[in-house]
Specification:
heterodimer; A: 362 residues; 6-stranded mixed β-sheet; 5-stranded antiparallel β-sheet; B: 233 residues; mainly alpha; globular
Chain lengths: 362, 233
């Protein structure tokens, strides 16, 4: 449990933010310059607030009214920095044990062997940071923070400096961490993709202020926050691999867990990873596989849930063999088709509805 | 021809002893000064910076003469040290080491300060979040990272000490076996008739000594740099 209520001014930037997080992963989401990293630095004690109060698990780290300000080394905050910040003169093993040396008698979040297994870094122990790839560095940085026995783990855009395959790799490990270690995680990101994939709750920051806080799905569906989450225009993001390019038709064939897609204007070579934003309003639903159709992408899946209580339309969450897809259809269609959770359906996506701007590259 | 005479051996060993102790004794002060100059902001900082660098630009004889005034038997500091602590510098090899330390200090401070300026403060912040208090951060992060700079500074200061002449001869005179280091011995030989050959022998010895020191330091600095950069040495 982390409680944060702080006012802070650095140059022309002013932060006035209050929020509380529970267990699991809380995403701190906002554009660049929203104050996300500043919040983490304030929690860790690397930046000083003007006034306010910060507590972690009932332990006061900072309280301007009571005159309490713990130095960074006494805060027990596991901080994974954007650039890793491994100590270059130490081996991976000594980097990992560095924090443990100062906190060896505290209750263990994870044991050494468990951390090795969890992050897949056991084979790197005798290497030096200079000999690690970007993804390996971040995994070691996460392990180092965990082994210092922190009470909360802060991840500051740990994927920002990585290429797409490494991003996917780290995401996998952060997911394992979330599922297998009982430690609250604050995950800073400006990628809705990562937030949706990892976090259960979300704090939306903009220009140093908290615009909203709550469950991720609930936050995503809040109409008034759409301008801040609007880049994605309410829809699922599919990560797919380019399987081939048909030069004659100008269509690329993409493969992902839920099947294959044909999309125009994909400027990527076969084998490369791309992200396709599929706006919910561009997805139609059919009960049977239609014949004689101009729509090129017909994907089999099942209805997971129907959401959206007000208005004439609602969001249908589909599961395409593990890949989520959102469809926005009218309430009337949903009731006429008899959509309900568990129903097998087909999702129809027009190839031309996915334009150049909907394709993300590594 | 190639073996050293007892007098030459004495001068060589004394030079090494004086240079070693001048570097060893000035190192903690130099690191502290470099840290203050690199990390703190305070009024009078540029004055302190200038004072530290003075020996670099002053004639060495001036430095030697000031040392003599301050640390001589009747000097204010020298009288105090002798009376209460029983320490004398004047006409002793320790005085030669002190003169060399003062002359080498700016080189040492400069080298250490430059590497301190280059240290990524973010690494120190990362160490703090892992539970290291400021002294531990300095010992376990800052110090290893500035090691190449410290080694470079130590070499420069050591070489400066081997070559120190003016401040030493002014402060502690030219006493064989006590304060007569290699340069002073060379100077003594050039002042007596027929001493040219011996002066030349000592000159060649000086060159070899300096070369050896340079090459040894090159190896050490390369290793330390590789370590600090996160590569295997």
């Amino acid at each position: 449990m982390l409680e944060f209520d702080v006012r802070c001014r650095v140059g022309t930037f002013a932060l006035d933010a209050a929020f509380a997080t529970g267990g699991g992963v809380t995403a701190l989401f906002g554009r660049s310059g929203a104050g996300k990293s500043t919040v983490l630095n304030l929690i860790a004690g690397l930046a000083r607030p003007q006034s306010g109060r910060i507590t972690v698990e009932k332990r006061t780290l900072y309280d301007s009214a009571a005159g309490i300000e713990l130095p960074p080394h006494a805060r027990r905050i596991g901080y994974v920095f954007q650039e890793g910040r491994l100590l270059p003169h130490l081996t991976v093993r000594h980097n990992l044990l560095y924090g443990n040396f100062f906190n060896r008698n505290k209750n263990h979040v994870v044991g050494f062997a468990q951390a090795m297994e969890l992050l897949g870094i056991g084979h790197l122990l005798e290497r030096r940071p200079g000999a690690l790839s970007g993804g390996e560095k971040q995994r070691v940085a996460i392990g180092r923070a965990l082994l210092a026995n922190p009470e909360v783990l802060l991840l500051d855009e740990p994927l920002a400096s990585l290429d797409a395959p490494r991003k996917a790799e780290i995401l996998y490990y952060v997911e394992r961490l979330r599922d297998e270690v009982r430690i609250p995680i604050v995950y800073v990101s400006h990628s809705l993709d990562e937030v949706v994939r990892l976090a259960s709750s979300m704090v939306l920051l903009s220009e140093g202020r908290v615009l909203g806080t709550g469950d991720v799905r609930e936050m995503m569906s809040r109409v008034e926050l759409r301008p801040y989450l609007g880049r994605h225009e309410g829809g699922a993001v599919i990560e797919a691999r380019v399987a081939g390019q048909d030069l004659e038709s100008g269509l690329a064939r993409l493969e992902f867990g839920g099947g294959a897609l044909e999309i125009p204007d994909v400027e990527a070579l076969p084998g490369e990873q791309v992200r396709i934003r599929v706006r919910a309003r561009d997805v139609s639903i059919a009960l049977a596989r239609p014949a004689g159709l101009s729509i090129r992408n017909v994907l089999a899946g099942t209805v997971v849930e129907l959401a959206g209580d007000e208005g004439s339309s609602l969001d249908v969450r589909l599961d395409l063999h593990g890949t989520p897809l959102l469809a926005r259809i009218t309430r009337k269609s949903a009731s006429e088709l008899g959509l309900r959770p568990g129903l097998p359906v087909f999702a129809l996506i027009k190839a031309v509805s996915i334009d150049r701007r909907s394709v993300g590259y590594a | 021809m190639w073996s050293l005479s007892p007098a030459e051996t004495t001068a060589l060993l004394l030079s090494l002893k004086v240079a070693f102790w001048s570097v060893a004794a000035s190192l903690p002060f130099a690191v502290a000064l470099a840290w203050v100059l690199s990390r703190l902001a305070f009024p009078g900082k540029s004055l302190l910076d200038a004072v530290v660098h003075l020996p670099l630009v002053l004639p060495p004889v001036v430095v030697g003469y000031f040392l003599l005034l301050a640390l001589g038997r009747r000097g204010p500091v020298g009288a105090f040290l002798e009376e209460y602590l029983g320490i004398t510098f004047i006409f002793r090899w320790t005085g030669a080491a002190l003169a060399c330390a003062v002359m080498g200090l700016p080189l040492l401070v400069r080298a250490v300060r430059q590497s301190l300026d280059a240290v990524d403060r973010n690494l120190e912040a990362a160490a703090a979040t892992l539970g290291a208090s400021p002294p531990w951060v300095f010992a376990s992060v800052t110090l290893p990272l500035i090691l190449p700079g410290i080694l470079t500074g130590m070499l420069l200061s050591f070489a400066r000490s081997l070559g120190e002449f003016g401040a030493t001869i002014t402060f502690v005179s030219n006493i064989p076996g006590e304060t007569q280091t290699l340069p002073l011995a060379i100077y003594a030989f050039t002042q007596v008739p027929g001493g040219d050959a011996q002066a030349l022998r000592l000159c060649i010895l000086s060159v070899l000594l300096s070369l050896a020191a340079l090459m040894a330091s090159e190896v050490l600095v390369r290793r330390a740099t590789a370590r600090a950069a996160g590569r295997d040495a």
